[in-house]
Design brief:
Oligomer: single chain
Strand order of the largest sheet: 1-2-3-6-4-5-7
Number of domains: 2
CATH architecture of the largest domain: Sandwich
Helix content: 10-25%
Order of helices and strands: HEEHEEHEEHE
Strand content: 25-35%
Number of strands: 7
Mean pLDDT: 74
Structural class: alpha+beta
Distance between the termini: 74 Å
CATH class of the largest domain: Mainly Beta
Length: about 200
Amino acid sequence: MRHIILIGLGITLGLFVLLGMQNRAEAPAVSVPDNAAGEFSAGNDTGQKSVTLSFGKVSIPVLLATTKEERILGLGGRESIYDNEGMLFVFETSDYHGIWMSGMRFPIDIVWLSPAQTDADCTPVVEPQELGSLQGTARNYAEENKCLIVVDIKENVAPETYPTVFSPMKAASYVLEMKGGAAARNDITIGSVLTLK
């Protein structure tokens, strides 16, 4: 009888170990920086570069997430951020980049962006052939100030949605995460053009 009990305990222990290893393999191991636990200003000392996104008269300072590790961590682990701040994920290629709420503690707006075909004032151009003589100007301007068009938005995505992955309707090269409600407060909608400086 002891043998049967010991074998049963051994099998049960083995199952717990295997399940624990499987759960660990599914979630990427990313360390949260010490300064990630509170609110931040995009100009803080996180070691990440910051830029400013402009939409009309509204300026949104954002931290750049350019490495795989920075993109996996995102805003995870932070208690909050200021209303008009965010994080801009920069990808090497345009794709249907998915975002999830792993480690998030507050709702966010997720905004997918792609480079926009615009004139020198970041005004969207419907047909490329209509640019005419402005084409060189637009190209030079885009090198200094990138004009990005919103291709999709998910608003007020709650931390409880994890592990759901949110993907855009159209391919994008950038993803902007802001505090929940920021898109509505700033009238950012699909088709809005933001300027990256």
